[in-house]
Write a structure and sequence with these properties.
Helix 9 crosses helix 10. With 324 residues, the protein is of the alpha+beta class. The strands form four sheets. Strands 6, 7, 8, 9, 10 and 11 form a six-stranded mixed beta sheet that branches. A three-stranded antiparallel beta sheet has the order 1-2-3, with no helix packed on it. It has a two-stranded antiparallel ribbon with strand order 4-5. It is globular. 37% of the residues lie in helices and 21% in strands.
Length: 324
C-alpha cells in the first residue's frame, strides 16, 4: 500500500500483533512464508515510521532486549522515529533513549513516623484533663427499695456521688418514711439494719445533692430513674447519661431503633471488667465509678457532639426570638 511514495507493510508475528512498518520503496522483501514476509536485511535506507496497536508491556520488552526495530513509545503516541541500521551505534542510541524516558520510582518520604508521633501526641493532649476540669464532673448512682403492696413502688435508699478519680463526695443511706416491703437486697445490697441506722431524710439529701451538682457536669447511667426517685432535675446540656449516648446503644429489633444497654454489659465490653456479678449485691459506688470511667473513654467525641447540639439549640432559640 503506497502512501506518500512509501510502502506500508503489514505482517503477522505472534508476539507483535498488527505490526505495521513503513519503508522506502527501494527496499526489497523476501518473504519467508506466505503469512510472514521478512526484511532481507536492515539498511540505513529503511526507516520505521509507525508502530500501532502494541501493548505497553510488549514495547518495554522489545526495548529492553535492544531490538533495533522498535524504540520506546508512550501510550499516547504511535510514532517511534528510530532508524533501522546494522551498526551498533543506532541500537545503543535507542537503548539510551529508552532509559532516559523511563521514570524512576518515587522515593517515599519518611513521614509515617512523624505522623504516628503527631497522632500519638494529639491523643495524649486530648486525654489530658486539668485539675480544674476534673472538678467539674460528678458521677451519681442511687439504690432503691420497694414500698407498698409487693414492693412495686420504688424509693431511694442510698445515694452516692463520686468525683473524677472515684473519690467519694457523698454516700449516705436515706431514712424511709413508709414501711419497706421489699429491700431488694439481691440487687441493691441494702439490708434492714442499714436503713434503720440511716440519718438523712429524703428532703435533706435532695438539698445537699442539688448543692453539690450546682454548675457541675453530672455523669451516670439511666439518670432519669435517679432524678425521679430524688425529685430533682439537671440541665440537659450538663448531663452525660451513658444509657442515652448513641455509640453506647444497640439495635434490638429490625426497626433500626437504638435501645440503651445494661451498665454491666457496657463495662464488660468497653472497660474489660466485671460489675454487678450475679449472686453479689449491687454497689452504688461501683456503678457510679463505672459510669465515670465510661464517660472518660468517650469524652472527646462525646463533648464534640454536645458542643454541636448546644450550638444548634442556641441558633434555634435566637431564630424564635427574632420571629417573636
Amino acid at each position: 500500500e503506497a502512501v506518500n511514495h512509501r510502502t506500508i507493510i503489514s505482517f503477522f508475528v505472534p508476539s507483535l500483533p498488527n505490526l505495521k512498518l513503513i519503508i522506502s520503496p527501494k527496499q526489497e522483501l523476501q518473504p519467508s512464508s506466505e503469512n510472514m514476509p521478512m526484511l532481507t536485511s536492515p539498511t540505513p535506507e529503511v526507516t520505521v515510521i509507525g508502530v500501532t496497536n502494541l501493548p505497553m508491556e510488549t514495547k518495554k520488552r522489545m526495548s529492553s532486549t535492544n531490538c533495533g526495530l522498535v524504540s520506546s513509545c508512550d501510550e499516547s503516541s504511535t510514532c517511534c522515529n528510530s532508524s533501522l541500521s546494522s551498526s551498533s551505534d543506532s541500537s545503543t542510541g535507542a537503548t539510551s533513549k529508552n532509559r532516559r524516558r523511563r521514570r524512576a520510582p518515587r522515593k517515599k518520604k519518611p513521614r509515617s513516623a512523624n505522623r504516628s508521633t503527631r497522632s500519638q501526641s494529639s491523643k495524649e493532649s486530648e486525654s489530658e484533663v486539668s485539675l480544674e476540669q476534673q472538678a467539674q464532673y460528678i458521677a451519681m448512682d442511687c439504690e432503691m427499695v420497694g414500698l407498698g403492696e409487693r414492693g412495686y413502688r420504688s424509693s431511694v435508699a442510698r445515694v452516692t456521688l463520686v468525683g473524677w478519680n472515684g473519690e467519694t463526695l457523698f454516700d449516705e443511706y436515706i431514712r424511709q418514711d413508709a414501711q419497706v416491703t421489699d429491700y431488694r437486697t439481691f440487687v441493691s445490697g441494702i439490708t434492714e439494719s442499714e436503713l434503720e441506722s440511716a440519718d438523712w431524710t429524703l428532703e435533706e439529701c435532695r438539698e445537699h445533692v442539688l448543692e453539690l451538682l450546682e454548675g457541675k457536669v453530672l455523669v451516670g447511667h439511666a439518670l432519669k430513674n435517679d432524678f425521679k426517685a430524688l425529685g430533682i432535675s439537671h440541665p440537659w446540656h450538663m448531663t452525660r447519661d451513658t444509657a442515652k449516648y448513641e455509640p453506647f446503644q444497640q439495635v434490638r429489633f429490625d426497626d433500626g431503633v437504638l435501645w440503651p444497654r445494661k451498665l454491666k454489659d457496657l463495662v464488660k465490653q468497653k472497660l474489660q471488667r466485671d460489675i454487678q456479678v450475679p449472686g453479689q449485691p449491687h454497689s452504688s459506688y461501683e456503678d457510679a465509678v463505672a459510669a465515670m470511667d465510661l464517660y472518660k473513654r468517650a469524652r472527646n467525641k462525646w463533648e464534640k457532639a454536645m458542643d454541636y447540639k448546644i450550638k444548634k439549640t442556641q441558633e434555634i432559640e435566637r431564630r424564635n426570638q427574632v420571629r417573636q
